[in-house]
Amino acid sequence: MTTSLKKPTKLRVLLNHVEQANLPQHLIQYIGRQKGKQAPGDRVSVDTQMNESQRDLHPNDIYKWIENNEGVDWNLFGYTTVIRFPDGSLEMINGQHRTQLVKWILPDVQEVPAHIIDTNDKEYAARLFASMNGVDSRKLTTEELFWAQVIGRDPYALYVQKQLKKMNLACGKVNSSEDRKRVKYGGYTNCLKMGEEATSRAVNLIDRAYPTQGMDDQVLIGLTRLLSIKEYQDLADTTLKIGREFDQWFTKEFADTTMLSDARFPQFKNTTQWYNGVAYGIMSRFRHFQKRKNRTSPGVDTIKRIYNAGIK
């Protein structure tokens, strides 16, 4: 007597796929999700061999793409680039991560759109890969990407845009105006992570101390760092005597004796986070000024310890 093997259920196939893909638990919910439709034209197998010039696979980049797009968005996929040699063999030179994304999220999809290039020159294939990934192409700057995200109504980008408007700043094309000082996206968002109030106060101090100059990003992040540390938060509060004294010192005495570029304290750049060196430099100068005036001041030990901990 023979027994027939039961065909695996769709659920069983899916569970097997999840196990083989080894996806993080929070991404499993996106398996099977897709939007849009594949671009027209030629197709190649998702198992097409990778050309030897291909970079290593970076799963974390794919995980981020899955989460941001909640699955596979074919409108963003475009085309892979595949070399076809005279013997008919195929090698993919561009699209490795996108193809792996499809394999993980859409196990039923066996082919992806491809631009197929016929050649018998393996070196040409490697040159194409290099050109497509940096030699003859230019990646978006963080400011250009930020602008695109604002247009696309990305929640975090809109939050950063709102803060820029509150502080009368511009970043790339966002909130751009001739009368607004500009900041770099990376430095400014780093400041916001330290605290909106500390960032706003630092912007105000630098703007008043150096009204005819731009907003120096390194000074901004260093001053924000100082004002975000609990022991030094009173320096940002002008309802307090120490806060008024710091305000007057920074916008008058410090600004009159220190060029904005020197306020970066390049001598303290020898630490893993330069802004800690800037914060230490500013606090040291203020402490010295207060002592000469026989005034009280927070000590420098806390910021000095933070600065020293990062020295290379």
Protein architecture, described:
The protein has 312 residues and is α/β, with parallel strands linked by helices. The chain has helices spanning 10-21, 59-69, 74-77, 96-105, 122-135, 142-151, 155-166, 185-194, 196-209, 217-228, 241-257, 274-292, 301-309, and strands spanning 34-35, 43-45, 72-73, 80-84, 90-94, 111-118, 169-170, 181-182. The strands form three sheets. The chain has a four-stranded mixed beta sheet with strand order 2-6-4-5. Helix 2 (59-69) crosses helix 4 (96-105) and helix 6 crosses helix 7. The longest helix is centred in the last third of the chain and has 19 residues, at 274-292. Mean pLDDT is 90; it is low at 1-9.
Task: Describe the structure using short key phrases.
elongated, 8 strands, 312 residues, 2 domains, alpha/beta, two-stranded parallel sheet, Conserved hypothetical protein from pyrococcus furiosus pfu- 392566-001, ParB domain, 13 helices, four-stranded mixed sheet
